[in-house]
């Protein structure tokens, strides 16, 4: 954590369009998140998220993973790039890379990810179709601290919504994304305020352990 006289510093990692990045930019500008986005780093060149960063006056960097000999070499270079900006929190916003344990451990307790499922269900990809294939009645999105286990860190905030008759994967994805833009800024806000922490592998809010789902937001107006 930065000292009280300095704003909390964020580094946001992206791989694509950066819609969650935009929600975070908007929330910092409005004052919802008492923090500064120190940099945006993408592992893919030419993506829309980089343009969003530039338009907001945020330093934007590209570290193309295809130019590295293996995951470990890329993660070492990425850590060096991130640490140049001395972040208090690393935010994965559609960052489509499986991270090495060394990377995850380096930022333990100060790295958040957002995943479009009700974790621990449906880790990995294609979550919306998997929900439909399973006949689930609810779906949602989870913000969680990052650990060495893929999508396995303790949840911080979770939004749930009903699966509607006639939903397809695209419809679910659109409704889930709207909740992403709601709960990711909220989780970052709580972290920046000193309210949200990870301790002994568990998420704490105001010093109290959160349930296995994290702080739960039920929503029908999605």
Question: How are the SSEs placed, and which strands pair?
Answer:
Blueprint: E1 8-14, H1 19-30, E2 35-42, H2 48-55, E3 60-62, H3 71-83, E4 89-92, H4 101-106, E5 111-115, H5 127-134, E6 138-145, E7 155-162, H6 169-192, E8 196-199, E9 202-205, E10 208-209, E11 215-218
Parallel strand pairs: 1-2, 1-4, 2-3, 4-5, 7-11
Antiparallel strand pairs: 5-6, 6-7, 8-9, 9-10
Helix pairs in contact: 1-6
Q: What would you say this structure looks like, in words?
A:
The chain is an alpha/beta fold. The chain folds into 2 domains: about 1-105, 3-Layer(aba) Sandwich (Rossmann fold); about 115-220, Rossmann fold (3-Layer(aba) Sandwich), CATH 3.40.50. The strands form 2 sheets. An 8-stranded mixed β-sheet has the order 3-2-1-4-5-6-7-11, covered by helices on one side. A 3-stranded antiparallel β-sheet has the order 8-9-10. Helix 1 (about 20-30) packs parallel to helix 6 (about 170-190). About 30% of the residues lie in helices and about 25% in strands.
Outline of the structure:
The chain has 222 residues and is an alpha/beta fold.
């Amino acid at each position: 954590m930065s000292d009280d006289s300095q704003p909390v510093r964020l580094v946001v990692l992206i791989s694509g369009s950066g819609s969650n990045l935009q929600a975070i930019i908007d929330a910092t500008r409005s004052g919802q998140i008492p923090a500064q986005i120190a940099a945006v780093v993408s592992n893919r060149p030419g993506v829309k998220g980089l343009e969003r960063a530039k338009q907001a006056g945020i330093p934007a960097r590209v570290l193309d993973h295809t130019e590295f000999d293996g995951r470990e070499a890329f993660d070492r270079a990425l850590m060096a790039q991130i640490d140049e900006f001395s972040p208090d929190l690393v935010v994965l916003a559609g960052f489509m890379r499986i991270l090495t344990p060394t990377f995850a451990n380096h930022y333990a307790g100060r790295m958040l990810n957002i995943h479009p499922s009700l974790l621990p269900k449906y880790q990995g990809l294609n979550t919306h179709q998997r929900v439909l294939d399973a006949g689930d009645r609810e779906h949602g999105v989870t913000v969680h601290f990052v650990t060495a286990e893929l999508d396995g860190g303790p949840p911080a905030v979770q939004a749930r919504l009903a699966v509607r008759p006639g939903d397809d994967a695209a419809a679910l994805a659109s409704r889930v994304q709207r909740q992403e833009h709601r709960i990711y800024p909220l989780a970052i806000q709580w972290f920046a305020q000193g309210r949200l922490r990870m301790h002994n592998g568990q998420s704490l809010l105001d010093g109290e352990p959160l349930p296995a789902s994290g702080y739960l937001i039920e929503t029908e107006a999605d």
